[in-house]
Amino acid sequence: MTNRSQWWCTMLAASLFFCLPHFARGQEAAGQPAGRNLAQMKFDTVPGLPTCALSSVQSGDPTKGPSIILAKVPAGCLVPWHWHTPNEHLMIVSGVARLEVKDGKPLTLRAGGFAMMPSRHVHQFRCTTACTFFIDSDAAFDIHYVDAQGKELAPDDALKAVRETAAKPMK
């Protein structure tokens, strides 16, 4: 990638993250600024995702609509081939991750890196070193695991195949 291409990617990521109107949505009072630091955030597992992936909702309600989630994932944690109904925007804060997309070239993302997966685009994601990243989803967040032929798999089956365990809903 050329310096000019890198600059445009950085500008695109910044504009998507900081300037889109839906960024202000969420559980905060309408029209009120909100913020928190990492030490103030509560992280938990997400049902259907590997138990190695922890997340903290920053804005919105991922079960009902658009949201921004901060994820902390240790090295080696893999989210195998899957797709989401919403468009997914990833912004890496720290660490290194490998993103693989069907019919595309793998991408190594480092701090400051950005990736966008359109709705229903099959991909997989692994942190090669411990990583922290934001996920900006433009609709209710879901995950649909698939096998090599594109057939949908239950989370337990998909994650068992890669020696991971699916997080369960809280009782």
* Helix share bin: 10-25%
**Total individual domains:** 1
Physical arrangement of strands within the biggest beta sheet: 6-5-8-3-10-11
Strand proportion, as a percent range, falls in 25-35%
CATH third-level topology: Jelly Rolls
How far is it from the N-terminal to the C-terminal residue, by CA? 47 Å
Can you tell me the CATH superfamily? Jelly Rolls
Work out the number of β strands: 11
**How would you sum up the global shape?**
globular
The topology string of helices and strands comes to HEEEEEEEEEEEH
What is the name of the CATH class? Mainly Beta
The second-level CATH architecture is Sandwich
Topology at a glance:
Elements: H1 3-19, E1 54-60, E2 67-73, E3 78-83, E4 88-94, E5 96-101, E6 107-110, E7 114-117, E8 123-127, E9 131-137, E10 144-146, E11 152-153, H2 155-160
Antiparallel strand pairs: 1-2, 2-9, 3-8, 3-10, 4-7, 4-9, 5-6, 5-8, 10-11
